[in-house]
């Protein structure tokens, strides 16, 4: 098992900062300071980034050249819930669509099969498909 930990800090603005490994990450709100992407964009970026990384790893293992991959992730969200308004929609995304433009010597069926395998191995994708227990407490 491996544990990943991220600790964030928000001070007097909407900006949220974290030092993740050797990297500084910033999340912000466009209407506030717009010094970084918002949390929802960051969430979708994490999914696309994981799919891309697992694609590179899987292609290498399968012995073919992945010249490139462009992953587009779209999420549809009704902002009513996050704004504290009543809604029958989930607070999070109603659905998420992944489209991958795979630059490799595979036919269309091969590209689809490859993407299915990649998504099955992607931890971020897996966390979206299966409910992961999340515990929360204040200190």
From TrEMBL:
SUPFAM superfamilies: OsmC-like
Protein name (record): OsmC-like protein
InterPro entries membership: KH_dom-like_a/b, OsmC/Ohr_fam, OsmC/Ohr_hydroprdx_reductase, OsmC/Ohrsf
Pfam family of the protein (one): OsmC
């Amino acid at each position: 098992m491996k544990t990943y930990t991220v600790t964030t800090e928000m001070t007097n603005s909407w900006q949220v900062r974290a030092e993740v490994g050797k990297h500084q990450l910033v999340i912000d709100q466009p209407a506030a300071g717009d010094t970084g992407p918002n949390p929802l964009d960051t969430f979708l970026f994490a999914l696309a980034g994981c799919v891309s990384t697992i694609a590179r790893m899987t292609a290498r293992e399968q012995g073919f050249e992945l010249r490139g991959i462009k992953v587009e992730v779209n999420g549809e969200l009704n902002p009513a819930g996050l704004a504290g308004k009543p809604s029958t929609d989930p607070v999070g995304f109603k659905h998420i669509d992944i489209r991958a433009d795979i630059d490799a010597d595979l036919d269309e069926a091969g590209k689809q099969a490859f993407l299915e395998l990649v998504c099955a191995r992607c931890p971020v994708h897996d966390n979206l498909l299966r409910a992961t227990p999340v515990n929360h407490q204040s200190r």
